[in-house]
Design the sequence.
């Protein structure tokens, strides 16, 4: 089974990448000179207490040993303790991750829809496709935070249609995703409220990726439509719908898939900015609060978790691609 | 005609994609069609893909105008301290003055009464010049690495490309934030943070181009003709890379501007009083209810820079494509 | 004189076409029964009358077809022959309603195909017709099949069911169709892919199959198989076939009638015999005259149709600017197709569109007017210039499923090249011929075995694609100067550059041009100029003419022959085309799967081929007026070469010991020529060499 082999190789490279990521973060931690002892037990502690704390944390061990400890920590879900909140970073991340995931997932869905709309509308050349493309292009040249600000000014300040901050919906539900929790609780108004809160940040996050996905989708659709094998399919007497379904879509999927995965990863970066603009209580806000106080365990933890997600998403996309195109094998 | 120049590189046939070369996620998505994922770009000095072959006079003028604007922005950036009407860090006006209401402060003033135009000009200077430097250094490092990897092949290529792959497989925005956080705030550290995640992207593109050119028989033909190795690199390979490098870089400046502004927005640029487009936006954010223009103006400038760079990058590509 | 196909004792050839007969007998015949042609006569499946087609490209509309009249009778094979740009492909696409909508086709005249007026048919009718009454075979089966779908599924889409698809796949000679059903196109060989296309084309028992250059992308022995298969399909199914090709020889193999197209017009049409034996239009005569065959005159330069004058005024006869028998009247009127034979000709009408068709019949053929080539200087006997012994070369590659595999490109090659001598190396794709050349040129260094010969600047090479072998951003001047020693004064360099340009027949103005500004033929001349500006001892040529149009190719071959004579260069010339090999080579070496199977004087190898593979290769060259007996089976893969003689699985005369005896490395001399002179020796790697 070539697919299994491909998945195996891809899984191995995924683990390798996570290892590299952990090493990079360890290196940065060393460079940053962040001192967990000073941060946790305070500057006024006695030298003995400091020494004891250093020994307990293994800070006087040689670098390889410290990296090994760092790595075992990651493997066992221990990302250290935040200087700022004094809680384990893992605990903080588990608390904030659902909000970020919800935002990214909704934004990704919006990006896919907008991208599809972009590709279809520019291929059909309907009258509004020009302005639509222009708007998307303009939006994609704006920094993500800028889109958030414009959205706030228009829909919150001037029109008053949408809320400016927070998440709305039912809080503290089982999944942590407020839309889903509201629906699970059967609270439709709350769900609507959650939608209203997420609309602006998700849209702001989605515009850039939408254009990228739409462009790739459009160009691979046009390329496939022009290809010889589609001509063959037409010559066979298949209907347009059949040709599209069996011979065009699957063949156009590949580039779109990898671009979508990339853009999903891109959103993990953009979400930092958007959460800042909309004071969305997720990992981005958590990171943003950690940055000014150089809370490096928190910064490294968030980077590792989001970076890990990014790596995983790309690996999944690769596996999906190899399922879509039998020619792809281990490179 | 030009079409003969296009096909280059090994047959794309059944090698398949493998993991697509990961575009750095931080840069704005696919603003340049040539940089879409998929097989490494081939040598494409010639015509725009699928575009109408027409090279109308209007288009020529438009392209040169955009390239001229790019130069103009650079000149403004260099002369910004002289052009700024006021001291950008001193409060000298009524706070929260809206734009276009006071001739002396055309773009208004910020929350503590500093002249927005002056702040924006100096902020633009920082952003633009730093973006140029990042692009240039990234291009330089990327070209050297890509050229060496592409020319020598074998384990050198494997080593260099595995390295870039690792970089590209990590989320660059996040890594840049982590690097900047580790190094602490400041312009040079921001530069380092961005360049660390930026060069692999150029290296990969240039290496792809070099491999494509190396696979063309003309390199073998030159070798057979008795041309030395260095001269082959210099005369028969490098000139083919230049157009791609220039196009890539010019399309990319806008992305660099955006990432720099984003880092600065997150508070990782220069410390407080210094005018910077990103940090001015984030600090102005609290005023969005009663003086929404304060965060808007610097943000708009970032957007204009990025828009201009994208359009001008396209123009550069058009001009290069039609040069012959 | 035609070379007669060598008689082969065990007739394996029939196997291919016989097996499908029973399989096809079971085909449902309902498909053709309910056809009610709208046109009056029931035995015409396609009728084109005054067909004009114009297409838009980059916003510019140009007329591609001008008043084409053509009728395809039921069960008839019509060959449409023309060069690139003749409009033959546009015509075939128009007959299927497949002109790309993006080119905004405009169609005038009448276009009736399979009982349907394609100009007015609804999309639904068109689809129905394509599904049940039409079939199509495209040139490149690799791109014409969906890479992400099992080939069987693709056949089944037209055939209706998997069982029917498997039956059709068996009928077109795909071995183990049940297993192949689940293959992807990239896992099949070129020949099998084309068979899949044919299976798809004949699914639903169509009335008309359009085959657009179906064999151009294939090796010559596979080409013969595919042509035989197509003809067999017609015989068994009674479908008509429109065979589009640039090669009169291919059309002549299986076509009943031939229509010659030039610039969107049919300039001559008649039965295959009429067109080939008494061509009336100067263009047809030119095509026949410039066609390389196994009996072209080697003592004279090849005759070629003159190139089209760029920017010539196009009033009157479109061929006027290239016609050597042009008169003033040709420039005023477009000649219509007129009867060229007596109207009561039993064979059918023979029409030609030439004002002077009657008088030109008697004119001698242009070829006879060319002066003979100067004789070659007497070959220097003695120490060989290049000596290759037991060369082996293998690469690590990935097979079609992405696994690591070892590709044996050369498996023990021994070959000598005398000073001033020319050896043509002939083989199909995968035979290792190009690798041999690259090893000889030191471009490929991963080989074992002994290789002695000139090195560095004494070996020069001309590549298949001259366009990509010239650095695109360097002018021709820079390219030529680069070959001269650094310290040569510029004036001297310039003088030498001008001299060599003159020798290869290019004007001095070319010096300032970039390669992209030159035509394909000019570029190949520049490549030759670069190779010979300092005359090397050996010139290596890697299929330098295979990418060129026939007339341009002929000129390049003439130039190589001329340079040989002028400069005394030894030539090693790689080609897949025996006819080309015969023109260039004093000797011919035939390669199969990394080994030389036969080598000898060109006339010996062509006239009395001794190796069964060579015999098939000779027999498979499409020649007007000779039936091709195709060789069964697929060329073996270089990833997994058969044991013993690599050819034995396909060999019609193989003995059991062929599977175990390797005779490839030791060529054995045959015939009664003195064997101490290498240039006269005829050597064959076959255990049964003495028997034929």
Sequence:
């Amino acid at each position: 089974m070539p697919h299994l082999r491909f998945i195996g190789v891809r899984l191995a490279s995924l683990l390798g990448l996570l290892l590299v990521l952990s090493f990079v973060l360890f290196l940065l931690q060393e460079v940053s000179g962040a001192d967990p002892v000073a941060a946790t037990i305070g500057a006024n502690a006695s030298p003995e207490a400091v020494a004891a704390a250093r020994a307990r944390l293994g800070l006087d061990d040689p670098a390889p040993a410290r990296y090994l400890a760092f790595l075992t920590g990651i493997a066992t879900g221990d990302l250290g303790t935040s200087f700022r909140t004094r809680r384990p970073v893992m605990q903080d991340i588990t608390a904030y991750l659902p909000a970020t995931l919800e935002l990214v997932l909704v934004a990704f869905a919006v990006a896919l829809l907008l991208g599809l709309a972009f590709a279809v509308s520019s291929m059909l050349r309907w009258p509004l496709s020009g302005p639509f493309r222009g708007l998307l292009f303009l939006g994609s040249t704006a920094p993500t935070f800028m889109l958030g600000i414009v959205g706030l000014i228009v829909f919150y300040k001037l029109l008053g249609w949408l809320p400016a901050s927070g998440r709305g919906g039912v809080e503290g539900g089982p999944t942590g995703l407020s839309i889903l929790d509201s629906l699970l609780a059967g609270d439709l108004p709350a769900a609507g409220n959650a939608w209203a809160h997420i609309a602006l940040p998700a849209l702001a996050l989605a515009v850039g990726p939408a254009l990228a996905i739409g462009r790739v989708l459009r160009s691979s659709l046009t390329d496939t439509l022009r290809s010889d094998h589609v001509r063959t399919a037409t010559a066979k007497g298949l209907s347009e719908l059949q040709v599209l379904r069996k011979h065009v879509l699957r063949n156009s999927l590949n580039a779109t898939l990898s671009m979508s995965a990339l853009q999903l990863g891109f959103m993990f970066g953009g979400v930092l900015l958007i959460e800042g603009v909309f004071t969305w209580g997720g990992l981005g806000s958590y990171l943003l609060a950690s940055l000014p106080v150089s809370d490096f365990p928190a910064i490294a933890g968030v980077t590792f978790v989001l970076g890990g997600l990014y790596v995983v998403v790309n690996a999944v996309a690769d596996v999906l691609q190899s399922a879509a195109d039998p020619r792809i094998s281990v490179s | 005609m030009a079409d003969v120049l296009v096909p280059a590189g090994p047959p794309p046939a059944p090698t398949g994609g493998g993991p697509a070369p990961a575009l750095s996620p931080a840069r704005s998505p696919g603003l340049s069609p040539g940089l879409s994922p998929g097989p490494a770009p081939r040598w494409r000095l010639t015509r725009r893909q699928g575009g109408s072959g027409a090279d109308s006079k209007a288009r020529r003028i438009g392209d040169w105008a955009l390239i001229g604007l790019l130069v103009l922005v650079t000149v403004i950036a260099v002369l910004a301290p002289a052009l700024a009407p006021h001291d950008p860090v001193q409060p000298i006006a009524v706070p929260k003055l809206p734009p276009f209401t006071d001739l002396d402060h055309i773009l208004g003033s910020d929350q503590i009464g500093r002249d927005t135009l002056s702040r924006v000009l100096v902020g633009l200077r920082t952003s633009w010049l730093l973006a140029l430097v990042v692009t240039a250094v990234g291009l330089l490092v990327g070209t050297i690495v890509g050229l060496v990897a592409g020319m020598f092949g074998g384990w050198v290529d494997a080593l260099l490309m595995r390295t870039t792959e690792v970089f590209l497989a990590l989320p660059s925005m996040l890594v840049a934030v982590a690097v900047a956080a580790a190094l602490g705030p400041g312009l040079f550290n921001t530069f380092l943070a961005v360049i660390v995640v930026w060069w692999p992207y150029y290296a990969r593109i240039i290496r792809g181009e070099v491999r494509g050119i190396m696979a063309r028989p003309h390199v073998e033909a030159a070798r057979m003709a008795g041309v030395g190795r260095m001269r082959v690199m210099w005369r028969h390979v490098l000139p083919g890379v230049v157009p791609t490098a220039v196009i890539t870089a010019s399309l990319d400046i806008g992305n660099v501007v955006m990432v720099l502004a984003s880092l600065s927005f997150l508070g990782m640029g220069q410390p407080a009083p210094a005018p910077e487009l990103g940090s001015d936006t984030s600090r102005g954010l609290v005023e969005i209810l009663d003086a929404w223009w304060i965060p808007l103006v610097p943000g708009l400038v970032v957007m204009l820079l990025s828009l201009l760079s994208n359009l001008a990058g396209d123009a550069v590509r058009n001009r290069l494509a039609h040069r012959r | 004189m035609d070379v007669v196909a060598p008689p082969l004792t065990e007739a394996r050839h029939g196997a291919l076409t016989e097996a499908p007969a029973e399989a096809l007998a079971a085909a449902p015949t309902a498909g053709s029964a309910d056809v009610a042609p709208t046109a009056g006569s029931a035995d015409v499946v396609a009728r084109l009358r005054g067909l004009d087609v114009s297409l838009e490209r980059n916003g510019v509309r140009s007329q591609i077809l001008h008043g084409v009249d053509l009728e395809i009778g039921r069960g008839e094979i019509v060959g449409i022959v023309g060069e690139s740009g003749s409009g033959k492909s546009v015509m075939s696409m128009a007959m299927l309603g497949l002109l790309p909508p993006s080119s905004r086709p405009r169609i005038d005249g009448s276009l009736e195909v399979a009982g349907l007026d394609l100009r007015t048919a609804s999309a639904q009718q068109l689809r129905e017709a394509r599904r049940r009454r039409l079939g199509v075979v495209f040139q490149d089966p690799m791109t014409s099949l969906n890479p992400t779908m099992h080939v069987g599924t693709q056949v089944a889409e037209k055939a209706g069911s998997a069982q029917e698809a498997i039956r059709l796949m068996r009928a077109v000679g795909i071995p183990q169709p049940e297993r192949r059903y689940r293959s992807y196109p990239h896992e099949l060989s070129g020949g099998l892919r084309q068979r899949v296309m044919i299976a798809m084309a004949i699914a639903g028992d169509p009335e008309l199959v359009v085959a657009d250059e179906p064999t151009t992308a294939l090796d010559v022995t596979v080409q013969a198989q595919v042509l035989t298969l197509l003809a067999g399909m017609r015989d068994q199914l009674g479908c008509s076939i429109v065979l589009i090709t640039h090669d009169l020889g291919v059309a002549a193999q299986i076509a009943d009638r031939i229509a010659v197209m030039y610039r969107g017009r049919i300039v001559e049409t008649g039965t295959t015999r009429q067109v080939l034996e008494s061509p009336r239009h100067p263009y047809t005569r030119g095509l026949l005259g410039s066609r390389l065959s196994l009996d072209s005159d080697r003592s004279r330069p090849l005759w070629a149709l003159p190139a089209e004058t760029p920017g010539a005024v196009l009033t009157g006869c479109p061929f006027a600017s290239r016609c050597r028998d042009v008169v003033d009247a040709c420039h005023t009127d477009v000649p219509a197709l007129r009867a060229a034979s007596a109207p009561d000709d039993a064979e059918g009408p023979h029409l030609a569109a030439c004002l002077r068709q009657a008088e030109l019949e008697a004119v001698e053929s242009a070829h006879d007017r060319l002066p003979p080539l100067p004789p070659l200087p007497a070959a220097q006997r003695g120490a060989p210039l290049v000596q290759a012994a037991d060369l082996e070369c293998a690469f690590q590659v990935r097979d079609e499923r992405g696994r690591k595999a070892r590709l044996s490109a050369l498996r023990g090659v021994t070959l000598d090249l005398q000073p001033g001598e020319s050896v043509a190396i002939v083989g199909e794709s995968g035979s290792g011929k190009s690798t041999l050349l690259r090893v000889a040129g030191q471009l490929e260094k991963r080989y074992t075995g002994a290789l002695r010969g000139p090195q560095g600047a004494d070996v020069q090479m001309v590549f298949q694609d001259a366009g990509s072998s010239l650095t695109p951003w360097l002018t021709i001047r820079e390219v030529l100067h680069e070959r001269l020693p650094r310290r040569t004064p510029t004036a001297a360099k310039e003088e030498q550059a001008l001299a060599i340009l003159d020798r290869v027949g290019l004007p001095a103005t070319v010096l300032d041009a970039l390669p992209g500004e030159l035509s394909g033929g000019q570029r190949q001349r520049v490549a030759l100029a670069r190779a010979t500006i300092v005359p090397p001892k050996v010139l290596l040529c890697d299929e330098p003419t295979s990418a060129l149009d026939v007339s341009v190719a002929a000129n390049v071959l003439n130039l190589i022959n001329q340079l040989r004579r002028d400069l005394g260069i030894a030539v090693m010339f790689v080609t897949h085309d025996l006819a080309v090999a015969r023109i260039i080579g004093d000797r011919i070496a035939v390669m199969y799967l990394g080994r030389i199977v036969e080598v000898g004087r060109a006339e010996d190898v062509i006239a009395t081929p001794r190796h069964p593979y060579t015999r098939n290769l000779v027999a498979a060259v499409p020649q007007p007026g000779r039936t091709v007996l195709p060789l069964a089976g697929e060329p073996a893969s270089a990833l997994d070469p058969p044991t013993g003689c690599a050819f034995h699985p396909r060999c019609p005369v193989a003995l059991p010991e062929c599977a175990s005896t390797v005779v490839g490395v030791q060529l054995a001399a045959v015939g009664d020529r003195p064997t101490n002179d290498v240039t006269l020796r005829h050597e064959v790697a076959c255990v049964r060499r003495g028997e034929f």
Observations:
- The mean pLDDT of chain C is 83.
- Chain C touches chain B at residues 58-59, 142, 186, 398, 400, 402, 441, 443, 456-457, 459-461, 463-465, 467-474, 482-483, 514-517, 527, 530 (CB under 8 Å).
- Chain C is about 30% helix and 20% strand.
